[in-house]
């Protein structure tokens, strides 16, 4: 048997302008496809899964910290990443935002770290929104913790409206039209913006319709992640990026 080594000349392929790593929950059906749709083709998106099981609770979400270091280490080892995201809003609340960011940095060194909480707070500040309504799929315990945290970060949280769910698969099954109806019901008359929490929701597909009907900005967890990752990397949005968030000119440093 002859073993040959053949010459090859690969065609030139466009270089990636940035690499984004996503640490997603094992039960997340939505965020990878959602982010890929919103990020431009020149940004690579690479994911790994963190151990988690339904039903979702603050206690279950805190246990994710036990597996997050393993998931981070196994995310493209040996290659540089520009941004690493922990893709769970309620999980960030359960662990604590600062603690989550520090855990990402230790688990998977990279240029920047973000979470849906970090990204959404930056997005709301970017839009100049201070008085907010929040829509979530969560139950009351998680909604209270989330509302308290966003209020502690300087926002006036007028209301947190939840759908009383604790199953990621069921959350992703919600049709965007359902989220439009829920968003309209959740939006307070004097709110500057609506934040729709949860990376499991297909809420980014409801943004344009909601903004047209509400006349105010709408920020969702996955939309905020995509925007913040691009913001941190100093890159422009893709054509499929929805909402006023992506159309509002950037202010200040890309590292804000």
Unreliable spans are 252-256
Q: What percent strand?
A: 15-25%
> Could you describe the largest sheet, including whether it forms a barrel?
4 strands, parallel
- Strand order within the widest sheet? 2-1-3-4
How many DSSP-defined strands?
8
Q: How are helices and strands ordered from N to C?
A: EHEHHEHHEHEHEHHEHEHH
What is the gyration radius calculated from CA atoms?
19 Å
Structural class: alpha/beta
Question: What is the tally of helical segments?
Answer: 12
Query: What is the arithmetic mean of pLDDT?
Result: 93
Estimated helix fraction: 40-55%
Distance between the termini: 61 Å
Principal-axes geometry comes out as globular
3D structure, described in words:
The structure is a single chain. The protein is of the alpha/beta class and 256 residues long. 41% of the residues lie in helices and 17% in strands. The chain is built from twelve helices and eight strands. The strands form two sheets. Strands 2-1-3-4 form a four-stranded parallel sheet, sandwiched between helices. A four-stranded parallel sheet has the order 6-5-7-8, with helices on both faces. Helix 6 packs across helix 11 (221-233). The protein starts with 17 loop residues before the first strand and ends in a 9-residue tail after the last helix.
